[in-house]
Design brief:
By secondary structure, the chain is mainly alpha-helical. It is 69% helix and 0% strand. The protein is globular.
Length: 90
């Protein structure tokens, strides 16, 4: 988690860190938030980021995320999105 990423989301780095689900590593959380943000705010530019997102999804799948649905819910609430888990491809 970096301040530059938090800035893109319009949040403070501390706020993002505070919301990390207990079972999730910070780098996985940052990647999940980025995916939610892309789907929630940059869907019109999907052609530009879709391959990067596919790589991110593949990497998230290799991580042992417990209660992934809850993590997506928390991420959506934090970023003000309503992205469905299946839309993310994870």
């Amino acid at each position: 988690m970096e301040s530059a990423l938090a800035e893109v989301f319009g949040k403070k780095e501390k706020e993002l860190i505070k919301k990390i689900p207990a079972q999730m590593k910070p780098d996985v959380w940052a990647t999940l938030l980025a995916l939610i943000w892309l789907h929630g705010f940059k869907i019109d530019a999907q052609v530009e980021w879709q391959f990067l997102a596919m790589k991110a999804v593949a990497w998230i799948r290799t991580q042992k995320v417990v209660d992934q649905s809850e993590c997506v819910r928390v991420g959506n609430a934090l970023l003000g999105c309503q992205v469905k888990e299946d839309a993310l491809g994870i």
